[in-house]
Design goal:
Oligomer: single chain
GO molecular function: DNA binding; DNA-binding transcription factor activity
Order of helices and strands: HHHEEHH
Distance between the termini: 42 Å
Keywords: DNA-binding, Transcription, Transcription regulation
CATH class of the largest domain: Mainly Alpha
Radius of gyration: 17 Å
Largest sheet: 2 strands, antiparallel
Protein name: GntR family transcriptional regulator
Structural class: mainly alpha
CATH superfamily of the largest domain: Winged helix-like DNA-binding domain superfamily/Winged helix DNA-binding domain
CATH topology of the largest domain: Arc Repressor Mutant, subunit A
Length: 130
């Protein structure tokens, strides 16, 4: 089950953070079709956001076709994201974790690592030439 975290300093609205975390869990195979999302009450208790914020996040996910609300039963995953095999994801996660440890030992902080990853993902130069 997903354990939501809300970073109030991120500048991203809490409902979008919750939605992003569900999407990430779907992409990583941590949530599968049929899985039940935490109840609104549980999310409120663990994350400190109000119920309307959770409802908005769940409604956005429902509009995207990723979850479905079942009256009196909860909110369930309807669809998955991502297509990589779980074994491939596990292998890549381990390699990436090793890379992050190496980056930190080289003096990079999380924001530096984030900037580097975003640059690579956006097709930025990887040879330092610009």
């Amino acid at each position: 089950m997903v354990e939501f975290r809300v970073d109030r300093a991120s500048g991203l609205p809490a409902y979008l953070q919750l939605g992003r975390q569900v999407r990430e869990a779907l992409r990583l195979g941590w949530l599968q079709p049929g899985d039940r999302l935490p109840t609104v009450r549980d999310v409120v208790a663990t994350s400190g956001v109000n119920a309307n914020t959770v409802l908005k996040a769940y409604r956005e996910l429902e509009l995207a076709g990723l979850v479905e609300a079942r009256q009196g039963s909860g909110t369930y995953v309807k669809s998955s994201l991502g297509s990589a095999a779980p074994e491939a994801l596990d292998d890549l996660r381990a390699k990436f974790a090793a890379w992050v440890r190496e980056a930190r030992s080289a003096g990079l902080e999380d924001e530096d690592i984030d900037a580097l990853v975003r640059a690579v993902l956006s097709g930025g130069s990887d040879d330092g030439a610009g």
